[in-house]
Design a protein that fits this description.
This protein is an alpha+beta fold. It has a single domain, classed as Glutaredoxin, CATH 3.40.30. The chain is 40% helix and 17% strand. It contains seven helices and eight strands, in the order αβββαβαβαββαβαα. Strands 1, 2, 3, 4, 5, 6, 7 and 8 form an eight-stranded mixed β-sheet that branches. Strand 3, helix 2 and strand 4 form a beta-alpha-beta unit. The termini are far apart.
């Protein structure tokens, strides 16, 4: 075998085995992620609201909450995005639901819009709930947001509420570049359903992180941020 062939095979071997060795090193490592922030504790339950067939509640569910207002058909783009980019992607997760708040006077129009976005599929975990304008305003005021309901009691924003009635989001939504440039911190308390990139990236990432948290809680392996931090600073002989 010539020297050129030896060099060639040596280089090819290195190029092949280095990625494999790197992956093997990663296998024993534990994946530590940051749980999705609680941006507000104890939002209001849907007291005084009624659903299409039964009482709908937020507690013990992982909910995406939206508001279609007095003229739901005007929210058709938002509604379609909620169905295609949120409901269709996450409907298989345990305890997931979409809850859309609508004034009682707009019930017929809301049901028509839901039928239009259903694509002949029964939206089992997509609920419409109804109440008076004052009850809707009161419920909305219990959420943390920088976006006010419009005059029709609608908004393009949706909110994540966990099983314990805590609102989830990001306490610091800055990009790494913004942090490096010492830009002031900003919260993300809701997600805009018209902005496709925000739904695909921020909402999608955040919702998966929340499901991972509950998956670990079911397995008994979940650690809060404080617990993880305490574990990481323990001496090696004290760690599991």
């Amino acid at each position: 075998m010539t020297k050129e062939n030896v060099k060639r095979y040596t280089v090819l071997g290195i190029l092949f085995f280095l990625p494999v060795a790197f992956l093997l090193l990663l296998l024993p490592a534990k994946h530590h992620y940051i749980p999705l922030d609680i941006v507000k504790y104890q939002v209001n339950e849907l007291s005084g609201f009624y659903g299409e067939q039964e009482t709908i509640k937020l507690e013990d569910h992982i909910s995406v909450v939206g508001f279609w207002g007095l003229h739901p058909m005007e929210e058709s783009v938002s509604a379609s995005n909620i169905k295609e980019m949120i409901y269709d992607k996450f409907k298989g997760f345990k305890k997931f639901q979409v809850v859309i708040v609508v004034p009682s006077s707009a019930k017929a129009e809301a049901e028509k819009l839901k039928a239009e976005i259903s694509s002949y599929e029964e939206l089992t975990y997509f609920h419409l709930v109804y109440s008076s304008p004052s009850s809707i305003t009161s419920f909305y005021s219990g959420l943390k947001t920088q976006q006010a309901l419009n005059s029709d009691l609608a908004t393009d924003e949706v909110f994540i509420v966990d099983k314990d009635l805590n609102q989830r989001g990001r306490l610091d939504d800055r990009e790494e570049k913004e942090k490096a440039n010492n830009k002031p911190s900003k919260e993300l308390t809701s997600y805009n359903t018209i902005k496709i990139a925000e739904l695909k990236n921020k909402f999608g990432d955040d919702f998966r992180v929340l499901f991972q948290e509950y998956r670990e809680k079911r397995k008994g392996t979940f650690q809060s941020s404080d617990e993880r931090r305490a574990y990481e600073i323990k001496p090696d002989h004290e760690q599991d």
